[in-house]
């Protein structure tokens, strides 16, 4: 990777999101404790160095909030000549032992594979799956539904931190998946 290569922000799209999607606002401080975008930027730098990005951090919300935001986001995206690539960054369950973490993660990944965002939220909340990107995942899936897009989920890989460090008493789960149309 070149020292001078960097990904630029898309400030016009960020402003449109803040203007057109209820609950969205320009707030750089929202990303202070969130590391999801920093995980994605080096990858994007390699595959699309001229891309522009807008990071969106979601803190909380009801299913009704997600549906409304998805409808507005779908309308915004549909009005664009070149629609953006939507990327969700999320760890899976946090800090259970390895067996329990894998059990909880499997429930979330199985719900994700059904392409039903409300079910994903319900499964994670009912089973205390601490997937930090739950609401972004639900928002993206519901946005695709609102746009009339048919998609499937292809799980690429799954692991826990125990696969790297051998410590099984408290793990974080990680998965890679694509939503393909």
Please characterize this protein's 3D structure.
This protein is of the alpha+beta class and 181 residues long. The chain has a single domain, classed as LigB-like (Protocatechuate 4,5-dioxygenase, Chain B, 3-Layer(aba) Sandwich), CATH 3.40.830. Helices cover 45% and strands 14% of the residues. It has helices at 11-20, 36-47, 63-78, 98-113, 117-126, 134-146, 162-165; strands spanning 8-9, 52-53, 94-96, 152-160, 171-180. The strands form two sheets. It has a three-stranded antiparallel beta sheet. The mean pLDDT is 93.
Give the total of beta strands.
5
What is the count of DSSP helices, taking H or I runs of 4+ residues? 7
Would you identify the CATH H-level superfamily? LigB-like
What class would the helix/strand composition place it in?
alpha+beta
Q: Whole-number radius of gyration?
A: 17 Å
The sequence of SSEs as H and E is EHHEHEHHHEHE
CATH hierarchy: architecture: 3-Layer(aba) Sandwich
Shape: globular
Q: Which CATH class is shown?
A: Alpha Beta
Largest sheet: 3 strands, antiparallel
In order across it, which strands form the biggest sheet?
A: 3-5-4
What oligomeric state best describes the polypeptide chains here? single chain
Percent of sequence in beta strands: 5-15%
Our count of domains comes out at 1
């Amino acid at each position: 990777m070149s020292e001078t290569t960097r990904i630029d922000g898309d400030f016009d799209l960020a402003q449109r999101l803040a203007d057109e999607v209820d609950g969205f606002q320009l707030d750089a401080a929202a990303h202070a404790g969130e590391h999801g975008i920093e995980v994605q930027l080096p990858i994007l730098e390699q595959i699309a160095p001229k891309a522009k990005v807008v990071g969106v951090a979601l803190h909380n919300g009801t299913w009704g909030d997600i549906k409304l935001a998805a409808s507005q986001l779908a309308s915004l995206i549909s009005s664009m000549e070149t629609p953006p690539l939507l990327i969700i960054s999320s760890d899976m369950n946090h800090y259970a032992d390895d067996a329990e973490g894998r059990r909880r993660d499997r429930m979330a990944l199985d719900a994700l594979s059904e392409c039903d965002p409300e079910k994903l939220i319900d499964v994670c909340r009912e089973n205390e799956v601490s997937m930090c990107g739950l609401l972004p995942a639900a928002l993206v899936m519901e946005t695709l539904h609102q746009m009339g897009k048919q998609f499937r989920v292809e799980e690429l890989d799954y692991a826990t931190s125990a696969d790297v460090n051998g410590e099984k008493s408290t793990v974080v789960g990680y998965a890679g998946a694509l939503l393909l149309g």
